[in-house]
Amino acid sequence: MLLLVDLDGVVYRGAEPVPGVAAVLAAHAAAGDDVVYVTNNSMWYRAEYVTRLEGMGAPVSPDRIVSSARATALYLLELQPPVEYALVVGGPGLIHEIRDVGIEVVASGDAADRWMSNGRDTAAATGRVDAVVVGLDLDFSYARLACAAGAIRAGARFIATNRDPIYPTEAGLTPGAGSIVAAVEAASGQTPVSIGKPGALLMQVAARAVGGDVAEAVMIGDSLATDVAAAHAVGARSVLMLTGITTRAQVTALALADRPTEIAADAAELAAVLDRLASATSAA
After folding, report:
1. N or C: at which end does the chain have fewer Cβ atoms within 10 angstroms?
2. Active site includes 137?
């Protein structure tokens, strides 16, 4: 099977692993299943995910990490007219991924400093900007918002890594990238192109990483609005983990067509669910 696995709220919550999930994934990888991680989180570079997942005992390699940061960089690379300069509101991983594809990055923190010291002149603060990319930025500020919105109003294209309103951590639920995207959208008056789930792009890029068919994949995630919706969008099966942001009551309130294929409350239930799905695949 091709397993497309979300990270935050599924494999870990912040720095804390979700008990047993890494071992379940490792067992399936050893049995021949393809495990690809598909995350809307744009803060980290691929190498950082590899280090974190290896430390938890999860099967991983750089080509099996498909983040919204990576997918956004690939999207920018294909735009016409070409994007040469991007103002990035986001973490170092997003900046690294965009620089990896040869695009010059204007960091929003640097632009904000220039904005404050140059009479709040957005053009002077940002310089030439072909696109504004917005992800999760833990240092987001009014000055960064002003620079991003000003550049978009001046004609820069507006791309969001994802619109997740919530980000699960070991300390609880915190604001996600979607909250920052919403602020820039309100201030600029423009709606962004959104790269992450529930759109199909991340899923398709992930399946291509191992030469698989995305419609035959199993998406394992903790969000009805992103993970399960993305699976429905590409015709894939889904397993909803109750280890992140969703409760069983929220599932039962949905129409049958919008529900996940399976639900798992913990690693033991995930293992049982994947065995059932594998048996169903073999019998088909």
Report:
1. C
2. no
